[in-house]
Amino acid sequence: MNVVETEWWSMALAPEWWADVEEDGTVLVADEDDVGCLEITTLHKQDGALEQAELKYIAETESPGAAAWVAVTCGDFGGWETRFAEGEAAVREWYLASGGVLVFVSYSCNHDNKGMDDSAVDALLDTLARTEPAAA
After folding, report:
1. Of the residues 11, 69, 123, 134, which has the fewest C-beta atoms closer than 10 A?
2. Minimal CA–CA distance to 21: which of 6, 31, 10, 37?
3. What are phi and psi of 57, to 5 degrees?
4. Could you tell me the CATH number of the domain that includes residue 63?
5. How many domains would you assign to the chain?
6. What is the structure's pLDDT at 25?
7. Nearest 5 degrees, angle CA 57-CA 6-CA 56?
8. Which residue(s) pair with 34 in the sheet?
9. What backbone phi and psi angles, to 5 degrees, belong to 31?
10. CB of 89 closer than 8 Å to CB of 109
11. What angle do CA 80, 85, 88 make, to 5 degrees?
12. How far apart are CA 36 and CA 92, in angstroms?
């Protein structure tokens, strides 16, 4: 099993999944079938931990078109998940936090493939582990 690792978190990848870190720090994760793609962005709060109420406020503000937010735990991170349609795409979004680290995850695929990767994506996110940055 492969592992994608950033300064703040790591996640195990099943053999059929690959990851690529973009110049802006966004991590793209997809499977060989190219059914859909995960985009993962990390933000870090300067002082203290992100509280769940604060995280939900951020989620609702940043994704105003999303309706029902559900509390979730993904590995070492807890937060909020929603699902919605956007044009021809089926979208799932997560706002997850561990301490002062916020991980925004978005999965999208063609609406015809909705649900096809759900269990695989859930299994990937269940391996999300918090890491501490290396000392300077």
Report:
1. 134
2. 6
3. -60, -45
4. 3.40.1000.10
5. 1
6. 85
7. 10
8. none
9. -100, 170
10. yes
11. 140
12. 11
- What is the DSSP-derived secondary structure letter of residue 99? T
Domain that holds residue 10: 2-129
Grouping H, G, I as helix, E, B as strand and the rest as coil, residue 30 is strand
Is residue 77 one of the residues assigned to a domain? yes
The three-state secondary structure class of 58 is helix
DSSP for residue 131? -
The answer to whether the predicted template modeling score (pTM) of the entire model surpasses 0.70 is: yes
Instruction: Find residue 95's DSSP bridge partners.
Output: 80, 104
One digit per residue, the tens of pLDDT, for the chain of length 136 reads 689 999 899 999 998 999 998 888 899 999 888 889 999 999 988 888 999 999 999 999 998 778 789 999 999 999 999 999 888 999 999 999 999 999 999 999 999 999 889 999 999 999 999 997 655 5
- pLDDT given at position 133: 65
